[in-house]
Amino acid sequence: MSELARTNIHEYLAELEDIPGTRVYTTKRARQGYWLNQFAMSLMKAKNREAWKADEAAYLADWPMTQDQRDAVLARDYNLLLDLGGNIYYLAKVFSTDGLSFLQAVSTMTGMSTEDYQDMMINGGRSPKGLRSIKEGT
């Protein structure tokens, strides 16, 4: 029997939370972010984008999200939105509506300039050296 097969799935998924700077989109996050992601997908329709741009808070009031989710959307805090169940591909509808490219939006999540983030990705991405475990601090 493989090690994974012997591992409790909840314990295994909890281990994924130990990866610094990474949020694995699990079923738990999918359930937590269902309405958040439905809101984001609604922005695929022009009439919804117009309503959103006219009054963001009023548009969000129609969606049964948590207050934390609403606040994070209004603040465009994409890292927090991922923590609250957002799926980056659905959230792309929000930053696209704001006129941001995927590159521009994701660079804000790293604290890097768009140019620095792009250069890092062109050169192979984040270095495997450095902090690899939150628990262990290594």
CATH superfamily of the largest domain: Dioxygenase LigAB, LigA subunit
Tertiary shape: globular
Number of beta strands: 0
Low-pLDDT parts are none
Give the C-alpha Rg: 17 Å
In short, what is this structure?
The protein has helices at 3-6, 9-16, 27-32, 34-42, 46-54, 56-61, 67-75, 78-83, 88-97, 102-110, 114-122. It is an all-alpha fold.
Task: Note down, in words, how this protein is organized.
This protein is mostly helical and 138 residues long. It folds into 2 domains: 23-100, Dioxygenase LigAB, LigA subunit (Protocatechuate 4,5-dioxygenase, Chain A, Orthogonal Bundle); 101-138, no CATH class. 62% of the residues lie in helices and 0% in strands. The protein contains 11 helices and no strands. It has helices at 3-6, 9-16, 27-32, 34-42, 46-54, 56-61, 67-75, 78-83, 88-97, 102-110, 114-122. Helix 4 packs parallel to helix 9 (88-97) and helix 10 (102-110) crosses helix 11. 17% of the residues are buried.
